[in-house]
Specification:
NAD(P)-bd_dom_sf, 2 domains, oxidoreductase, Rossmann fold, alpha/beta, about 30% helix, 10 helices, Quinone Oxidoreductase, Chain A, domain 1, Alcohol dehydrogenase, 7-stranded mixed β-sheet, ER, about 25% strand, 15 strands
């Protein structure tokens, strides 16, 4: 079968389309999946660029979607022909967080989904939303489920809340769509007026160009009548946390899901204490949470925003497009 592989020490020029042995037929509790799509995330970029080293010859990509080709004994959740989507943490089925590393994450600690087929335990997948293309479904694994957990599972989102979303990448646009569909007002930040206009088309109530308004935390407070927002979807990290603390309401929730501005820095703890707000770190979610998210997608009619689609052998160019920062929503790979 075909597979994209990453040679040590990593780097986009080390991604190569290769032939790998066919995975064979499923054993008990397993399914064989013909894969047809993946989508790019910052975590995948860190692996493929060599910034987060992995084993030589690793098959990258945490996101994967396709069709069930064969079912092993004892599998009851799936039948041949089901459209499915992979989970980020294949061993975390439900309940409180149980994993704090990437040793079992596809495309990092184990082989991922940039290939023609896999044989894995059925519990590593959920069904895809009805009527979705494979490239749409592939956006659920990481970005979609992260946004869902940040807002609904951890943030307790309800109609009438106000949500602040930083940026217009995959997680942020999913968060905008989820919050809008559930009756919340959404404020979006970006450095691009064109992207902010697109965010308003998707339902954003207010938009802020953070280059023009570097103290955007105060702007958010002004837009909410001095109250602040109920939930912040924080993808920046240390470079944006101070403004997020300024923007959140007393007793509000900040979902820390990204480190785009770095992995360490000063945290204004006095402001966080005064706000009595909650700062919650998270990495994607469990299989049960993904199943709940898929049901919500079926109910709301949300469809992911896909910026551009590349072929499997064009994976390196897909990451170069991601590096440019020009994308809005998700970048997909389909074959």
């Amino acid at each position: 079968m075909r597979a994209m592989t990453l040679a040590k020490p990593g780097g986009l020029d080390k991604l190569t389309l290769a032939e790998r042995p066919d995975p064979g037929q499923p054993g008990r509790g397993e399914i064989r999946v013909a894969l047809h799509a993946s989508s790019l995330n910052f975590h995948d970029y860190l692996v493929c660029s060599g910034k987060s080293p992995t084993e030589d010859g690793r098959i990258p990509m945490a996101d994967g979607a396709g069709v069930v080709e064969a079912v092993g004994d004892g599998v009851e959740d799936f039948v041949v022909g089901d459209h499915i989507v992979a989970g980020f943490f294949p061993d975390w089925q439900g309940g409180p967080p149980q994993v704090g590393d990437f040793r079992r994450v596809p495309g990092d600690g184990i082989d991922g989904f940039a290939c023609d087929a896999v044989v894995l335990p059925a519990t590593a997948f959920t069904k895809a939303p009805a009527g979705w293309s494979h490239k749409e479904s592939a956006t659920i694994t990481t970005a979609g489920l992260t946004a869902w957990r940040a807002l609904v599972v951890d943030g307790g989102l309800k109609a009438g809340d106000t949500v602040l979303v930083l940026g217009t990448g995959g997680v942020s646009i999913y968060a905008l769509q989820i919050a809008h569909a559930m009756g919340a007002e959404v404020i979006v930040t970006s450095s691009s007026d064109e992207k902010l206009a697109r965010a308003r088309e998707l339902g954003a109530t207010h938009t802020i160009n953070y280059r023009e308004q570097p103290k955007w935390g105060r702007t958010v407070r002004d837009l909410t009548g001095g109250r602040g927002v109920d939930i912040v979807v924080e993808v920046g990290g240390p470079g944006t946390l101070a403004q997020s603390f300024e923007a959140v309401r007393i007793g509000g929730h900040i979902a820390l899901i990204g480190v785009l501005t770095g992995v360490s820095g000063e945290v204004p703890t006095a402001l966080l204490m005064a706000k009595q707000a909650k700062l919650q770190g998270l990495i994607v979610g469990s299989r049960l949470e993904q199943q709940e998210f898929v049901r919500a997608l079926d109910a709301t009619g949300i469809r992911p925003v896909i910026d551009r689609t590349f072929a499997l052998e064009e994976l390196a160019n897909a990451f170069r497009h991601q590096e440019s920062g020009s994308h809005f929503g998700k970048i997909a790979v389909a074959w």
